[in-house]
Amino acid sequence: MLVGRIAKPHGLRGEVAINPETDFPDERFVPGARLLLTRGERGERGERQAAETPEELQVATARFHNGRPLVRFEGFGSIEAVEPLAGASLWIRADSRSPLPAGQYYHDALIGCAVETVAGEAIGQVTRIDAFGSAPLLVVTDGRHDVLIPLAEAICVRIDPAARRIVIDPPDGLLDVNR
């Protein structure tokens, strides 16, 4: 799971500024945390484009400046050592995530879920989640069109990531306006 991208070196002693890609930066960027670093090309949603072996790094020090994590990794003590890390992505293993309260889901757990209505009509499969406004939107494709469905309890009445299934009760016109 992507948790951040290294923006640039910060200072002369091996710290890097990180653009966080997580809702839990204060849990991910703490001394002792283990992160996987990958370099190279990334897709639109942060997925790896080519097979590569991630490098495991351990956070030595971490602090926040203007809401952005400033991190120094074990074994990196100078600006020269961290300059090549700029642009790299930082990941955690899925099994190291904290459990969420009931009714909350990690977005990547919903990607690939089949979506159908309470009447059993197949809508498509979740391809991504856009979280720009007050309610995230499931982007569901049927192979021809993308349908935007608010990730709201009133609409998404059953969410079962383990079964890879989401059942929706869309208000009148929601599916038509997207098609």
CATH superfamily of the largest domain, by name, is RimM
Structural class estimated from helices and strands: mainly beta
Number of domains: 2
Please trace the helix and strand order, writing H or E for each element: EEHEEEHEHEEEEEEH
- Architecture (CATH level 2) name of the largest domain: Beta Barrel
CATH topology of the largest domain: Elongation Factor Tu (Ef-tu), domain 3
Task: Tell me which oligomeric state these chains represent.
Answer: single chain
The helix content is under 10%
What is the number of helical segments per DSSP (H or I, 4+ residues)?
A: 4
Q: How many beta-strand runs?
A: 12
The largest pleated sheet is described as: 6 strands, antiparallel, barrel
Can you describe this structure?
This protein is mainly β and 179 residues long. It folds into two domains: 2-96, Elongation Factor Tu (Ef-tu), domain 3 (Beta Barrel); 107-178, SH3 type barrels (Roll), CATH 2.30.30. It has four helices and twelve strands, in the order ββαβββαβαββββββα. The strands form two sheets. A six-stranded antiparallel barrel has the order 1-2-5-4-3-6. Strand 4 and strand 5 form a beta hairpin.
Quick take:
Helices cover 9% and strands 40% of the residues.
Describe the protein's topology:
Blueprint: E1 2-10, E2 15-20, H1 25-28, E3 34-38, E4 55-65, E5 68-73, H2 79-82, E6 89-91, H3 107-110, E7 114-117, E8 122-130, E9 137-141, E10 146-150, E11 156-160, E12 165-168, H4 174-178
Parallel strand pairs: 7-12
Antiparallel strand pairs: 1-2, 1-6, 2-5, 3-4, 3-6, 4-5, 7-8, 8-9, 9-10, 11-12
